[in-house]
Amino acid sequence: MSLQKVTFSNSEGQELVGRLALPADRHPHNFAIFAHCFTCTKNLIAIKNISKALTSNGFAVLRFDFTGLGESEGDFADTNFSGNVDDLIAASDFLSENYQPPSLLIGHSLGGAAVIFAAANISSIKAVATIGAPSNPKHVRHLLKSGLEEIQATGEAVVHLSGRDFRIKKQFVDDLETKSLPETVKALRKPLLIMHSPQDDTVGIQNAEEIYRAAHHPKSFVSLDGADHLLFNKEDSIYVGEVVSGWAKRYLPITDRLDTDLKTKHHVVASLDAYDGFTTSMKVGNHYMVADEPEKYSGHDFGPSPYEYVSAGLSACTAMTVQMYAKRKEWPLENIEVHTSYSKTHAEDCENCEMDSAKIDTFHREIKLTGDLNDKQKKRLMEIADKCPVHKTLHNETQVINMLLE
After folding, report:
1. How many angstroms separate the Cα of 248 from the Cα of each of 9, 257, 324, 349?
2. Over 80: is that where the pLDDT of 222 sits?
3. Which of 81, 309, 378, 399 qualifies as a FRET site for 96, CA 20 to 30 Å off?
4. By three-state DSSP, how is residue 318 classified?
5. pTM of structure
């Protein structure tokens, strides 16, 4: 994944700051905009995980801070729900002018309500997905609690939300009263995906039901069973990203193009940004995947480790070679399983085994052969396993030739 810092102006001329995530080594087939939850920012870990899942499936994702939040300019106290919708339209204009018009809007919590209103005003949007969205923007009023009385009496109040103090003005509350989400959903007439957790104690599951009832088909509902409102569990947010990308592909034009601007035509490309830790986006042939390190090695375990990929290559090559040989011999090999793991172990004949330098790279491979095979056939197939091309490569002297790409 390639991540770019972008800036654009809202309707008031204030600078909004975002991050545009692009898939590794290919032009994105569609651009999406993500709207974060009330008083959140673009850097919520759940949003990052959802974006990673989408980019690994070929989407470009723009996530940005609404006016007055995060890195964006403006005073939050002067904003309102309508301003959030306007910010989304400004983000759409930015993508249209500099990349390509967005086709997918994704919104979390109040951002889910905002994307529905924005989608009604952005002609390029072909599909909308909401996550834990309220069925009416007025739902936010209950978060203000005792501050609401002060707002009504004095025109503003400081309220404590998400661990921070925010100044809320009466115009914010009044603006919420003018918005009817059910009416907007009913008139939307665009594919809608509604994702919600039955255990959401911030925005109750009945909100999803009300949005679903108001919407026209095609509409879909996916239960995020066990998830909390902010998707703190990384498995939940990754799942959301995978489901949204799979669902959206049904309604969006998908045309993958390799990045012909690159000066390399290698079969494997890895891309890693400075702030992604070990989570590496990869293009392997015509396929896209992620590599990572386990959590105990400071990774996020979002994908196999590099050595697990090497072990996977050995396992796959072994299975292909043995099965191909068995077919040529017309032997009844119904199935072959190859279990491989990697470690550094001491050489059997090492003279100074206590030294780290005496350890060698070792692949432990166990093979299970299923079929009506005699002992002679099994022995021969085990010999063939050692002749697979990857096995030979690991035994041969190899070289890596580096070239700096400009």
Report:
1. 28, 18, 39, 57
2. yes
3. 81
4. helix
5. 0.71
